[in-house]
Model the fold of this input.
Amino acid sequence: MEKLPKKSRRNKKQEVVEEQKAPNQGKAMQTEEPQKEERAPVSHRSMWSGSISVGLINVPVKLYAMIFDRGINFHFLHKTDNQPVKYQKVCTRDNQVVPWPEVVKGYEVSKNEFVVFDKAELDAVKPESDKRIRINKFVDYFSVDPVYFYSTYALLPDKSKEAYSLLMKALETMGKAAAGRITLRTKEYPALVHAYKGALVLTTMRYGYDVSDPSDFEQLQKLKSPEKSELDLAKKIITDLSGEFDISEYKDTYREKVEELIRKKLKGETITVEKPAPKEEVKGLMAALQETLKQLEKK
Done:
C-alpha cells in the first residue's frame, strides 16, 4: 500500500481532532438555551363541577382556577423574636376574647345598631346551587364592556368531550359568548362562557349597579377642551408609540427587587438602601409634549 506523505498524515490527524472537538462544541451550544417565558402554574384540582345548560342541552364541565396572584406575601412577626403574630376576635365593649361558637353575623342599619342573623336564616336565602351554568343568550364577545369582568376560570370537559368540543368550536368560529349565570359558593354571578386558546373559559362579571359611571364624577363635569396644537402633538406621540400589545413585556419589578433582597439576606449580605432619585421638575403641558416628541425622534 502506498504511504501517504507526512504532510497529508498531519492533515488527517487534524481532521480527526476537529471531528472529536465538534461534538463537544455542539454540546456547549446546546446548553445555551434561551430563557423560558415565566408561565403561571396549572391547577390540578377542580373548584366546581356541573354542566353548561342551554335549553335541553347539557355540557358536563369542571371549573379550574386560571388566575394566580404571583405577588410577594409577607407575614407579620413579633420584632423581638421574629415569631408570627395572630389575631383574635375581641369584643369592643368588654375587650374579652370571643370564642368562635359565640360569634354571629349582623348587618349594621345605623351607627352601632345591628340586625342579627343566625346561620339557618341565611342558609334559607342562599342562591340555589344546582350545579348548572344557566345560559339564556349568545352575544358578540367583543360587545361586552370588560369593565364588568371579575375573574376568569378554565372550563374543562367532564365525561362528554364531544359536546364540549362542539360548543367550543361553534363559539370560536362565530365569535360569540354564552351569557348566563352561575352560583359559586354563596354568591350568584352573571357570567360569560367563551372560547380562548383552544378551551372554554368562564368569566364571572360584576352587576351593573356595582360599577360607577365615570361621567358621574364631579371633577369631569367641566373639563376644558384641549388646544388644537396640544392635541396635534398628543396624537403624534400616540402614533409614534403605537404597536401590538404583548403582556410578556410587562414585569412585576417590585416582586423581582424583593426576591433579589431575599436572596441577598439568605446569603448574609448587607443591604444598602439607596436614596430615591430626585423628582423631575414639573413642566408645562406644551413643553412636556414637545420634549417627549423630541425624545421619541432620537430613538
